[in-house]
Amino acid sequence: MIYFGMKTKNKKPFLNMDERNKQIAYKVISIMYFLTIFAMQGIVLYRQFALGQELGDFEDIAIIMTINSLFLVSALLYFGAIQIRKLKVKSLLLIYLAFVVLGSLFTYFKYNIFQSPGLSFEQLFDKIIIVVAIIGLIMGFWILLSILGKKRLDKELE
Amino acid sequence: MENIKLKIARVEKGLSQQDLADLVSATRQTIGLIEKGKYNPSLNLCVKIAKVLDKTLNDLFWYENKE
Lengths: 158, 67
Known about the structure:
Oligomer: heterodimer
Distance between the termini of chain A: 42 Å
Number of helices of chain A: 4
Number of strands of chain B: 0
Radius of gyration of chain B: 11 Å
Largest sheet of chain A: none
Order of helices and strands of chain B: HHHHH
CATH superfamily of chain B: lambda repressor-like DNA-binding domains
């Protein structure tokens, strides 16, 4: 049936997907993405702690996972999925502290629990300083991206 | 909740689910699910459907709460 001024058939998008199809596809892709990341994380931990392999043996997986996670959070912040600007400085410091504690514990377990002989206190302290600095850099980068994302959004709203 | 209003408006226009789907760039399944009340369409799609059926959004998608 044709009405005045109406196209009988609109141009179909790629793969004939409408909004519902896309929603389902996004949901499935997101779930599969996280399953893949968790599986890779499991492989890395298993290789590192159960098999006792050196970092060099699974460096490729570790690099992919690190870059992937960094870019995932960065993109979420930049495109406004996570609103970090609503967080107070105190909350940001607490998050930073939590990351530092987790990183330090991981370092401690890696070098002093799963390896024998473990590192001396000074050696361990040097490693933890690196952890603190890297986490600080990453959080700084994320805060910068979230500010840039906010500016981008404000520009679109002008 | 089943969207009877949409179904009636579509039938009154003499359109099948497939016809309506083609006119609003959706799939027949999506139109079917909207009529069954099992999918919440975006505002954009609601407007497209309302325009095609010569109705307002209220006519098709607004329900008063029954006491």
